[in-house]
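User: Could you walk me through two proteins back to back? I'd like the raw sequence and the structure tokens for each, with a short line separating them so I can tell where one ends and the next begins.

Assistant: Of course. Protein one, sequence then structure:
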Amino acid sequence: MFLRNLKSKVVLLSALLAGSVGTAQAIPQTWVDIDGDVGALIGGQYTYTHDITDGWNGFRPGIDTLSSATLSIWLFDDQGILGSDSKWLLGDKQESVKFNLDDSGWTASGNVGLLSDFWFDVTSLLDDGLLTVVVKAVSGDFRFGASILTARGDTATNVPEPATLTLFGFGLLAVGFAARRKRA
């Protein structure tokens, strides 16, 4: 009788422990931030900061994870317009620019008037969800069009910890044993 009772207790305890081991669910997420003053004249250096932590579904540093990020920056000639064949119809065409992302060093870009895309290491975003961008006019002056930061990763859902569920299971087990002992 004791052996049979012990066997059922071990099976019940094993079932409770196996049920208490939960895993956190990760849901794929994309965070997008648009920043900068559209139309701002850049003749020297222009600085702005992207923040993917704002909003109701913002990135949570230390909780959410990032796997990749893309930064798209559009600058245009202050003197010209872009034709249907993607060539400048007017303008001085002498602008050149460099970019710096979170003090990672200066990166040269193509001609002003084209969209520049940057794929970069997301470690700076993991710490605080902020990306500071510095645009520097090397020659000429131009206008700021847009800057779009797109970060991809996983957001964690709120799942109870396995230890909490284990303690809850032991509590239920103790209540069951106490009720059974009382009946006997």
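----
Protein two, same layout:
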Amino acid sequence: MYLLFLLFWILLNGKLNLEIFLFGIVISAAIYWFICRYMDYSVKKDIMLIKSTGILFWFLVVLIREIFWANWNVLKLVYSVKYQPEPAIVYFTADFKTGLAKVLLANSITLTPGTISVSVEGNRYCVHCLDKTFSEGIESSDFVRILHRLEADW
């Protein structure tokens, strides 16, 4: 996180010289100390984030793939003359321990065309689907498997 703060500082300045770099080191250290002290952050979380980079990248690849296929399915549904969509509200549970995993799953569902996360209460999700076929296997999707694996690393 410290390096991200430093990189952000350099990006905001638009140029790099020794003075800007040294001042950025001091400012970034102060901000990093502040978030560690007052916002329940630690170096352990940084290490955990670095370890999880591969899984997070895979999650992003799966998300992009699912968005592509969901777009394709919505297009087929919209342009089909013979098929009438049957909207559905689906409830399912996903037993996550962290709030981050819950939010990632809810946002991934919402980012995927044809589905919207309506609410998350505890481990119970409420999802609106443009068609009831979009809800098939939602509780055991790739998103859920990857997020469980991610939580195991945390």
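Residues 52-153 form one domain.

Let me know if you want the two compared in more detail.
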